[in-house]
Amino acid sequence: MTAGTDTENTEQGSEHRQTRPRSLIVALDRVWRTVTFGGFSSLTRRIVFLNLVALIVLVVAILILNQSRSSLIDAEVKSLTAQGELIANSIAASATDGLRSNPIRVDPEALLDLDAAADFLGLDFPINPVRAGTLVTYLSSSAGPRVRVYDTEGTRLVDSDSREIRRRDLPPLGEEQPSLLERIWNGVTAWFRRDDLPIYQELGQNEGAGYEEVVAALAGEHATLTRVTQTGELIVSVAMPIRGYQTIQGAVLLTTRAGDIDNIIREERNAILRVFAVAAAVSVMLSFLLAGTIAAPLRRLAAAAERVGKGLQSRPQIPDFSKRGDEIGDLSLALRDMTASLYNRIDAIESFAADVAHELKNPLTSLRSAVETLPLAKTLESRARLTDVIQHDVRRLDRLISEIADASRLDAELYRRDVEPVDIAKLLQTLVSLANETADEDAPAIKLEITEADLETCRVIGHDVRISQVFSNLIDNARSFSPPRGEVRIKARRAGDEVEILVEDEGPGINAEQFERIFERFYTDRPDKDSFGQNSGLGLSISRQIVEAHNGRIWAENIAAPAAKAGKAEIAGARFIVRLPAVAH
After folding, report:
1. pTM of the prediction?
2. What is the sign of the dihedral through the CA atoms of 412, 416, 422 and 426?
3. Which of 72, 90, 311, 404 is the most exposed place for a label (fewest CB within 10 A)?
4. Is the pLDDT of residue 65 over 60?
C-alpha cells in the first residue's frame, strides 16, 4: 500500500510540475499579447496604431524642427548685446586712462608676481585690469554669460570664470558626461541640425585674435557668432568694442554657457513629451472606445452571419444595431433584411415543393387508379372512358410540370436579365391582336381602350417577355370566365408616377373572401365542372410574382352592374388591376 501510494504521489507531483510551467507560459503569452495588442481584434490594433502614429509623427517633428531654437538664439543675442554695451561703456568710463595721448604699455606678464590688489597709480594702462575685473564682477553673475575683456592686442585681461582676475591659461570648463540615452538623442538631433555652424574652441590668454567676433570688435564693429561644442551644444558669442575718447581701447566678449540654450530647449521638449504621454494615453483610451463601438458590433454581425451560413440554429437572428444611426446600423439592417429575404425564399421553396408534391400526387393517383382499372374493364365503353381519363391526367401532368418548371426559373431569370424600357401600349396592342386572331368563333373578343395621350406615356422599366406573360395570363383567365361571344376589356392609362392596366371580364365575379386566395399557388375555383384539371392554378400566382419583382402591385375586385339597386349591388364581372412604376418623362 505504501509503495503504491508513493508511486501515485510521485506521478501527481510530476504532473503538477509539468502543469506549472505550462500555466506560466500561458500567463506570459497572455501578458505579451495584451502588451502588444495581440489580444485585440485587427481593427482595434489598426485604430490604436494609426492614432498613435499620427501623434508620434507630430511630436517628433516638433522636437526635431522646433522653431524656438532660433528664437531663443535671437533673444540671447539681444540680451548679450545689452549686457555687453553696459559692461563696455562702464569699462570705458572708469577702467581706462584716456587723458594721456601716449599711454605707457606694460607687459601684463610682468604683473603675474604682483598682488592683485597692488596700487597701479604709478603705471598707465589703456584698460585697468583691476577696475575692469571689479566692474565685470559687479555687473555679471556666476550663472550669467561668460565675460572676457581683451586689449587691443587680443590679450585677455579679465575673465569672469577665473578666480584670479588675470589668469593666463584658463582650463576648459568641466562638463558632465551625458548618459547613453542623452548621447543617442544628441546624435539624432545633431544629424538634423544645420552643418554650417563652426565648432567652438577654447583659446589661450594671448589668442583673443583667434575669435572672429573679437577681431571685428577691435575694428569697431559689433559682432555676433553662433558655434556648437563637440557634443552639439550651442554657444552664442557677442563682442562689443570698448571706446575711449574716439579710440578703441579693447573689446568685451560675452558667451553663453555651453548648454544654456539647449537646456531650455530640453525643458520644452520634456514638457512636450509629458503632454505627448497624456495625449497618447487619451488617444489610446479613445481608440479602444472607438474600436469597441466598431469592432465589437462588427464581430457580432460576422458571427451571426457565420451562424446563418452554417445553419447552426434553426433561424439565427442578426443583431439589431439600427438605433446607432450610423453605417454599422445600416449594415445590421441590410443584413437583417437580407436574412429575412433568405428565410422567406427558403420558406417559399419549401412551400412550393410541398405544393408541387401535392398537385402532382392528385393526377398521379387518378392515373394509377385508371391504369389499374383498365385491365378489369369488360366493355369497350368502360375502356374508352378509362383511356380518356389516362390521357387527361397525362396532359394535366405535362401542363403542371411545364408550368412548375417555368415558375422555378422565374426568380433566376428576373434577377439575371437586364431591365430595359417597355412600351406597355405597344405590348398590349400586340397581345390583343394575337389573341383575337387565334381565338375561336365563340371565344370572347378582346378590346383595348387607350387614349392618344397615354400612348407615349405608358412606359415602364422591366423584362418585356415576363410583363407580356402577366397580361397573357390575365387575358386567358378573363376569357375562361367570360361567356361565349362576350367581351374582355383592357384599359391602360398613366396614373401619376405609375402605369395602370385594367383587365375586365363579364364573368360571375369573385367571392369577397377569395380576393387574396386566388393569387395562391395551385388554387383554382371554377364553377364549371368540365374545366376540372384544365387549369394548374399557377397563372395568377406567377403574375403576382412577376409584378412584385418589378416593384408593382396587382389586385382583384368585382365590377358592379350599372343597374344595381340601392342596398344590393349586382356583380357584372371581375376586374384585375396592375400598377407598375412608370418611366419618368
Report:
1. 0.47
2. negative
3. 311
4. no
